[in-house]
Design goal:
This protein has 6 helices and no strands. The protein is mainly alpha-helical and about 180 residues long. About 25% of the residues are buried. The protein folds into 2 domains: about 50 residues; about 110 residues, Four Helix Bundle (Hemerythrin (Met), subunit A). About 5% of the residues have low confidence. The protein starts with a helix and ends with a helix. The protein is elongated and about 70 Å long.
């Protein structure tokens, strides 16, 4: 709905504003009426978007600082739990569980990246993001290995990721 209003408002604004003032299309004062309608639609789209983003903040909602922090804190333990069954579960099951872990532990941090930078600044952000990114790459590598049917590489990547996730959790600023 927002996008439709935005496009419609832009079209009306451009058409209304681009119409020559000496040409009248019937009784409608084309140039100002459509420009005003377009501007009002753009403002409406802006306020709708602003209200839908009002939930961003410290709650545990997706894309929030709290969700990202919780994901960072639980990542190492979740990898350990996954690793316990990695040698005995079917390789398809391992790949599926890794996919779920990426959605539950990696994606919340990605979704909140701008909020994290805004709250912490680049210096604090870099302290925990560097080890986190290394752990993240290793989980993706484990997933790729599991989907290719290469269990030893998947297990090795998981084992290596734990240290990086633990470091990221330690480096998250205390408020």
């Amino acid at each position: 709905m927002q996008k439709l209003m935005l496009v419609f408002g832009c079209v009306l604004g451009v058409v209304g504003g681009a119409a020559p003032s000496n040409i009248k299309l019937g009784p409608l004062p084309f140039d100002w009426t459509l420009t005003i309608v377009g501007a009002l639609l753009l403002l409406g789209a802006y306020f709708i978007r602003k209200n839908t983003r009002a939930g961003d903040g410290e709650s545990a909602a997706a894309g929030s600082l709290a969700a990202a922090h919780a994901a960072i804190l639980r990542a190492a333990d979740d990898v350990r739990n996954l690793q316990k069954d990695a040698r005995t579960d079917g390789i398809e099951s391992l790949a599926s569980r890794l996919d779920a872990m990426i959605k539950n532990n990696i994606q919340p941090v990605i979704d909140a990246q701008n909020l994290i930078i805004e709250k912490q600044g680049f210096a604090l952000y870099a302290r925990h993001t560097s080890p986190w990114a290394t752990g993240e790459r290793l989980v993706y590598r484990a997933w790729s290995a599991a989907t290719d049917g290469h269990r030893p590489e998947a297990i090795a990547s998981l084992e290596e990721s734990i240290l990086h996730f633990e470091e990221a959790a330690r480096e998250w600023p205390k408020y």
